[in-house]
Design brief:
CATH architecture: Roll
CATH topology: SH3 type barrels
Number of helices: 1
Order of helices and strands: EEEEHEE
Distance between the termini: 6 Å
Strand content: over 45%
Shape: globular
Structural class: mainly beta
Largest sheet: 6 strands, antiparallel
CATH class: Mainly Beta
Helix content: 10-25%
């Protein structure tokens, strides 16, 4: 999956605050994502994160990442 730092991810499951949009701040074996509503940062294993990504936006445009 082609995702880069500063991509906006729309996940299948929402954060406990109710938002499902996250900013990708680190890429590696783990993804570090920041909730765009409350600002909380979470480290997620890459495999689990890639499975839960619904849509990727890069510079405001939808990216086909499959």
């Amino acid at each position: 999956m082609d995702v880069r730092v500063n991509d906006e991810l729309v996940m299948k499951k929402p954060h406990p605050c109710g938002n499902n949009r996250f900013l990708l701040t680190r890429v590696g074996m783990d993804f570090k994502i920041r909730c765009l509503k409350c600002g909380r940062e979470v480290m997620v294993p890459r495999k689990k994160a890639e499975k839960n990504i619904k849509t990727v936006f890069r510079d405001g445009e939808k990216i086909d990442c499959n």
